[in-house]
Amino acid sequence: MTKTRTSTLRRAGVLVVLLVAVLIVALTVQLPSTDEIHEWTESAGILGIAIFVVGYALLTLTPMPKGVLSIAGGVAWGLWVGSLIVLIGALIGAALSFWLGRVLGRDAVEHFTGGRVRAVDDMLQRHGLLSVIALRLIPILPFTLINYAAGLTAVRVRAYALGTVIGIIPGTLAYVAVGAYGAELNSGFFVALGALGALTIGGVFVANRIRKDGSTSEHSAHDPATPAAAEQIAPE
Question: Structurally, how many domains does the chain consist of?
């Protein structure tokens, strides 16, 4: 099994474990009811929303998995309001890390991301907006790595921003729905699980396509030192 596939399946496994943990907690742990949580968020008002958005944006600058925070947003504010809040936090964090990537420079970012910037750079230069959308659609690829690495690439700010907005919506809705419907385990919860599963399977397919395209480009350019994109994007 290739390094790319192993890394991709590892992240897919982490996603499965996270979702199973949510299901177990929902079935076995006595948690505050959804109504009680909603009453708390209503009493917290705009301040509570602002704290969550700022916290989400700041944590986006770190390798911490964002799915947990998205699920929490769904529990606290429901599907639609929670999705809007999570999207705002994610977009602010994506903008901050994009800017930090350009300020810190390639050496610092490569040290932070394990030297996997070059593959993202190559991919974004070849496909621009479509590459940003494709990378954002895959929940098993590291969100933080893409943010920082994109700041070092030739991708246009407009393409990065638009691709991020479009690309993170499906995954955000699915994660937030897990939190919004997890306590009730109704049809919305299982639809959300199915959506995450579909995105993950699609992610494995796209990662393999990226690897093959990178290998093809390598061969055509007669440059054996150029790494396959998916192998470099996938986490260690």
Answer: 1
- Per-residue model confidence (pLDDT) at position 102: 82
Please report, for residues 49, 142, 164, 167, 219, the alpha-carbon distance to residue 138 in angstroms, rounded to integers and kept in the order given.
27, 9, 12, 8, 26
CA gap 173, 68 in Å, rounded: 13
**Poorest-pLDDT segment among 76-90, 147-161, 193-207:** 193-207
Pair of tokens at residue 56: 């989400």
135 domain-assigned: yes
Say what the pLDDT of residue 51 is. 92
35 occurs within a structural domain: no
- Residues spanned by the domain of 224: 3-26+45-233
The closest alpha carbon to 167, from 136, 205, 198, 201, belongs to 136
What is the Cα–Cα distance from 70 to 180, expressed in whole angstroms? 10
Residue 76 within a domain:
yes
Q: Among residues 93, 96, 148, 158, which one has the least CA distance to residue 117?
A: 148
Mean pLDDT calculated for residue range 221-226: 41
What b-and-e string marks burial along 47-79, b requiring 16 or more CB atoms within 10 Å of the CB?
ebbeebbeebbebbeeeebbbebbbbbbbbbbb
Residue 36 lies in a domain: no
**Angle at CA of residue 152, ends 150 and 153, nearest 5°:** 65
Q: When comparing pLDDT for 53 and 64, which is higher?
A: 53
Of residues 6 and 85, which shows the higher confidence score?
Answer: 85
